[in-house]
Design a protein that fits this description.
Elements (H helix, E strand, L loop, with lengths): L1 H7 L5 H17 L1 H7 L7 H19 L4 H24 L5 H13 L3 H14 L8 H23 L5 H22 L1 H6 L7 H6 L4 H10 L4 H21 L11 H20 L13 H27 L17 H5 L1
């Protein structure tokens, strides 16, 4: 299957193909929801998505592996080395680092603004030293580089039916919505890494601070003030999803099922957190498999409909040549996405 993706994308160089495979493995290991939603994209667009997310996962792994003070220094050095390799790779189109090589190729093929990658690395450097955020404005400044630019990087790959400038704010908002969802789901795990992404002023408005979160995490006991703060953060996150939603219709039809599936599945994480009583300091909330299967089936139906429309449109073209990504739907896709 990976070979078919690479062939469809026109990636022929053996070393470059292996670099893309490496990114795909990273994405599969770390991002189950979005990796599986990517299976709903036309095959020729998937390698670029894996390159973008594979690089982001690689950098994030460096940051999240922070441990002792000595280890922190090593991680700072590793992130700096990755950034130097990124700058060189984007400039020259070559790199000994597989994730950079695939990323540079994707950026060239899709003409992705290099500033998005620079902003991303700025956010990663921030994560090495910043452990909490005074207010939502401060958190949003961080998320511009850590999340919004991921949506902006994706736009040239997904394609739009509007001009890209119109779709860009919604794509950026979707990246932020996904990250806010992760912040809510992973409050306990992030706290163990020494980070609190929930804005301090939001917590304080409900009588909560870092020490109160730490107490709950360590003792396993609940506190209604914490639940109230988490519920407020959920409401804030749902507001960002509403900002992102109009952008779905601005994507090319063959790309919409993938992003809509990710949109629904990530939104389902918020539902799971609420249904679990906001117990995120004590366990990870997950979307039930049956619900994932329903969303996957809907996504598959939308893929089939989009491809049928595209083939019908192609039949009316003078040359009669089907557009890329309009071939038959792959078997067992629902099972894989679910």
């Amino acid at each position: 299957m990976t070979e078919r993706e690479l062939d469809a994308a026109g990636i022929t160089d053996p070393a470059l193909r292996e670099a893309y495979r490496h990114c795909r493995r990273l994405n599969a290991r770390h991002g189950r929801t979005y990796f599986l939603a990517t299976r709903l994209l036309p095959v020729e667009r998937r390698p670029a998505v894996h390159a973008l997310y594979g690089f982001a996962r690689w950098a994030d792994d460096i940051v999240d592996a922070l441990g002792t003070g000595a280890d922190t220094a090593r991680r700072v050095a590793e992130l700096a080395a990755l950034e130097r390799e990124l700058v060189k790779g984007l400039r020259d189109g070559e790199s000994a680092e597989p994730v950079v090589r695939a990323l540079a190729d994707t950026a060239r093929r899709h003409r992705i603004d290099h500033a998005h990658f620079a902003d991303f690395m700025t956010a990663m450097r921030s994560d090495l030293v910043v452990t909490d955020y005074a207010d939502y404005a401060a958190l949003r400044r961080y998320m511009h580089g850590s999340a919004a630019v991921i949506g902006l990087q994706m736009l040239p790959v997904l394609g739009t039916v509007t001009d890209r400038e119109t779709a860009a704010p919604h794509a950026a908002a979707l990246g932020v919505a996904f990250q806010l969802t992760n912040f809510l789901r992973d409050v306990g795990e992030d706290l163990d890494r020494g980070r609190v992404y929930l804005p301090a002023d939001l917590l304080a408005a409900h009588g909560v601070d870092r020490e109160r979160l730490r107490w709950s995490r360590d003792t396993g006991r609940r506190d209604p003030r914490i639940t109230s703060a988490l519920r407020a953060f959920e409401r804030l996150t749902r507001g960002v999803y509403r900002q992102a939603a109009p952008g779905l219709a601005m994507l090319e039809p063959v790309s919409r099922p993938c992003i809509r599936t990710a949109f629904v599945l990530y939104g389902g994480i918020l539902d799971a957190v609420a249904e679990d009583g906001y117990a995120v300091l004590h366990r990870r909330s997950v979307v039930p498999r049956r619900r994932r299967a329903v969303v996957a089936a809907d996504g598959l139906a939308r893929v089939a409909a989009a491809r049928l429309r595209a083939r019908s449109d192609a039949a009316r073209r003078p040359d009669g040549v089907p557009l890329p990504g309009t071939g038959p739907v792959e078997p067992r896709m629902v099972e894989e996405v679910a």
